[in-house]
Amino acid sequence: MADFVVVIPCRYASVRLPGKPLLKINGQPMIRHVWDRAGESGATEVVIATDDQRIAETAESFGALVCMTGAQHSSGTERIAEVADIMDWPDERIVVNLQGDEPAMPARLLGECAGLLDDATADIATLASPFATRADFESPNCVKVIRDDRGHAIYFSRAAIPFARDGAEDRARSVALHHHGIYAYRCGVLRRLVAASPSDIEICEQLEQLRALSLGMTITVGIPSERPGAGVDVADDIARVEAELAP
Fold it and tell me: How far apart are alpha carbons 237 and 80 in whole angstroms?
């Protein structure tokens, strides 16, 4: 597997949980836990990308490399693309996008995601698992992905796809996979992505990976060796993550 770097995009503003990266989990700020997971992954470099001085100062206090970015970004992908330019990374450099609210992401899955780019036909790599429950499959908060026979994404949706005609609900749930929000891409692909305008299907579903499919890019989807824990979206998630990370 080729070398890879990890970038953790972080912002202070959050509609449901302001200041989320700095919230304490087992006595440490959440961003510290995410940085620890990235550091355990075998990455050659880990960068925390933010536009907020409070996050930067906290990250630097525990020894993290911080890259200050602009405040105009509407997605983590855009923020990571700015980091790639600031760091002058070549187009062939592999970058893993690890969200700053994923403190329970198993470290080895970062390498698994990056390793999927050994597939020379793939532009982007990501991970997805079988659905654990019917409720998750039907929830618009759980993103579904359908793959072709080569493991490449056909479509991502918040809707319960594929449609279960004539009572084929069990088959539909076995076909769809529950998408995890972790990506690996080469910097050249990343730069092409952020240079393009949002596609119509991206705007409809509010899923930025649909821009890549609209551009004709190939997204390879791997099933991880273990199912990652859910990220932190609301305050009630803190207790769950603390239990998951407890020694």
Answer: 26
Q: Which residue has the tokens 């693309």?
A: 81
Which residues in 206-236 are b (16+ Cβ under 10 Å) and which e? Answer: ebbbbbbbeeebbbbbbebeeebbbbbeeee
Within 10 angstroms of residue 87's Cβ, the number of other Cβ atoms is 17
**pLDDT value of residue 191:** 97
Q: What is the pTM of this model?
A: 0.92
pLDDT of residue 115: 97
Low-confidence spans in the chain with pLDDT less than 70: 1, 15-16
For residue 166, give the CATH number of its domain: 3.90.550.10
Q: At what angle do helices 187-195 and 76-86 cross, to 10 degrees?
A: 120
Q: Residue 53 half-sphere exposure, CB side, CA atoms within 13 Å?
A: 0
What is the model's pLDDT at position 244? 84
Helix (H, G, I), strand (E, B) or coil at 239: helix
Which residue has 């084929």 as its token pair?
Answer: 168
Domain range enclosing 115 = 4-245
Quick one: which of 94, 91, 78, 85 has its CA closest to 195? 78
**Residue 146 to residues 123, 137, 162, 173, Cα–Cα distance (Å):** 17, 12, 8, 10
Structural domains in the chain (count) = 1
